[in-house]
Amino acid sequence: MASGSDVMVEFDPKNMPFRRLGPSGLRVPVFSLGGWLTLGGTVIGDPVKDIIKTAFDNGINMFDTAEAYAKGRSEVEMGRVIKELGLRRTDLIVTTKLFWGLRAGPNDGGLSRKHIIEGTKECLERLGLDYVDVIFAHRPDVSVPMEEVVRAFNWVIEKGWAFYWATSEWSAHEIEEAQHIATKLGLHEPIAEQCQHNMFHRERPEKEYRPLYKKYQLGTTVFSALASGLLTGKYNAGIPEGTRFSTHSNFFKSTVDSLQKEEGLTKIRKVNELSVLAEQELGCTITHLALAWVAKNPNTSTVILGASKPEQVLDNLKALDVIPKLTPEIMDKIEAILENKPAAPPTFGRPPLDLNGRL
User: Fold this and answer.
1) Distance separating alpha carbons of residues 167 and 152, to the nearest angstrom
2) Ranges for the NADP-dependent oxidoreductase domain (predicted)?
3) Is 209 in a helix, a strand, or coil?
4) Is 235 noted as a catalytic residue in this protein?
5) Which of 109, 189, 264, 278 is an S-S bond match for 258, by CB 3.0 to 4.6 Å?
6) Which of 69, 164, 209, 216 does the annotation list as catalytic?
7) Where is 56: in which H helix or E strand?
């Protein structure tokens, strides 16, 4: 972490668009960089620095990690690189997540007040930072009263260890409960949800959360926008060596097995059709199309990219040029291929409202 004369790299947003993170005033880049499975895991040392510097030099100033990523090494590597590059702390948005912890003790995980407070302190120690911008509840904890969870995150914010808190992979019901408690007690409410959202995973982010977007202006920080690489086309003819499905074969075993079944074969057929559409009508790859498609959603605050080398960051950022090309006509063609658009809430015969008025 650098300040004043210690700063070696000035931040230049380039052509990166920024959006508000949910209802907050915090501005985040449309594309951010995450450490899951890569930074501190399959990628360590100088290559981590190369990836983060490439992202920063191209307008990405938001970096996401978690206590559980590579058993804490992701936070260590990210913090080390931030310091070695001489990045100004106020230029950065650093987020981390709590739930699984690093030890097996009965209070070393979950969302008890004890683990939220002690876990936050340990995250900051590994990162070498005084605070993170957003701290996420990495999963819901049904064994802890929701009021305890909300009060604990509020306390972390009041201590100055984080500016905001958010959720990850929570149900709409659980987010709603946290919102109600925060409002009732005058505490800080969760501002975002880190969820999986891609062309093959749509029900939760597009249907289940729909009322939350309207009621609380909730924003999403999307992971797995490429369906763990399936939407790059790399798995159309098998599992290449060095890919995520290969290097993390145990973790993705059920996904890999599913590719040999009817559902998986159908997805591969759709990937091929989407690839043709991307190349012939948009002049891009399916990777760029898939990333742009998620980013185009107005409820997406940021799309978290994963990269094992700098070139992947640069290639993924080409999706920025595709977003404005996603016209209603192109979106309709995509829907015709996907055939999985979540159904709208039933109206029970009521006539539609005027689209030019407030819906």
Assistant:
1) 14
2) 33-338
3) coil
4) no
5) 264
6) 69
7) helix 46-57
